[in-house]
Amino acid sequence: MDVFRLADADTVLPGARAGDPAAQEALFRAFQAPVYNLARRICRTTEDAEDVLQETFMEVFRSIGRFRGDGSLWGWVRTIAASKALMRLRRNKYRDADALPDDVMAPRREDAALRMDLEAALERLSETARAVVWLHDVEGYTHEEIATMMDRTVSFSKSQLARAHVRLRRWLGEEVPA
Amino acid sequence: MTHLTMEQLLAMREPGQEPGVQGWRDHLDVCDVCQTELSRLDQRVARLRALPLLKPSRNRFLEIRARAQAERRRRVFLVSGIGALALAASVALAVVLAPESGARPQDTNLAGGQELQETMARSRQLEEALSVYNPEQRVLDGRTAMIAATLEDRLARVDQRLQVMNLMDRGVRQSESLRLWRERVGLLDALVDVHATRAGYVGF
Question: Alpha-carbon distance A159 to A164, whole Å?
């Protein structure tokens, strides 16, 4: 999803670095939707996602002077957003159902009767599994990058992704009869 | 026939070649079930990527900017303000405690000096109380952020006036000093209230 670009980044960046409100607003307008989307897909509540949005742009405005332009601006902003969202997950760990099997999260019905849409199925995953799916499959991060961001191992990221897809497949009724 | 696991199917979609991938590909070439699985996996990922972009319910730029500005001011204040403020405080104290050449009686100076010292001590206590709430790290809702930013703005102006007070005429300084420190205490008090209320609300 690396499609978000700031058309006039060359003029906006120096202003944002100098703390110019108009430049900061241009930056915010360009990236607020993808940042919020990433946060909302990873976090469980809209409140958490809005907090992540706020924390991300606070960090962007604070650190924009350190952005060297080696990669894309959106890539830099996105990494801050992902890191803030994952920090929020860690902070809310007590709410996370990772320690619980999915059967505990929601009573399992007969698989055949369970036909969720993709949004609902994604929502049903544990926060960690959903974060891995989103960061890997949608945002395009590698397992190595995800492992670094989550402070876990590469195999943890791979196994979370595989387990999540097994569950999504079941919940979406996409199992292939052998 | 043993079919490919989800881990193996996912590994085949990765850019690097994991050990064993060639064997899995050989199996895939001849297995309809695994071909369907891989195709469904590809489709599922494509559908994930096509999910609609979720947007925030309202524009929060003004709140974020207010918070960023407050944080910036706080940092500037911490770096440069404390030293200058300490200097202003000592000047203010010296002015009030210094014997006046005019007709004002000595005991009035001492009483004023004592009150100033008490006010400055109260100001320090409130600064400490404020630091407990760690305002720089806390996420505030828009309205609270605006109130906090307004109070911090006014506080910054009071501190500025305290810093330049030593350029004023001694008589003015003496009357201004206590008034400014009282105003500072009032603003800090309000700021602590704002953060205490917010912290109470979120179960700090």
Answer: 8
Tell me the nearest-neighbour CA distance from B102 into chain A, angstroms.
49
pLDDT digits (tens, 9 = 90+) for B111-148: 667 888 888 888 888 888 887 776 665 656 666 777 77
**Run of H or E residues at B49:** helix B32-49
CB contact under 8 A, B45 and A137: yes
Question: B190: alpha, beta or left, given left = phi > 0 and alpha = psi -120 to 50?
Answer: alpha
- What phi and psi values does residue B50 have, to the nearest 5 degrees? -95, 0
Paired tokens of B72: 């910036």
ipTM score here?
0.83
Q: B44 — contact with chain A (CB < 8 Å)?
A: yes
Alpha helix segments (H runs only) across chain A? 9-17, 21-42, 46-63, 73-91, 102-105, 118-124, 127-133, 143-150, 154-171
Whether the full predicted model's pTM is greater than 0.80, yes or no, is: no
Evaluate whether B144 touches B198 at the Cβ level (below 8 Å): yes
Handedness of CA B90, B93, B99, B100 (dihedral sign): positive
Q: A12 φ, ψ to 5°?
A: -75, -40
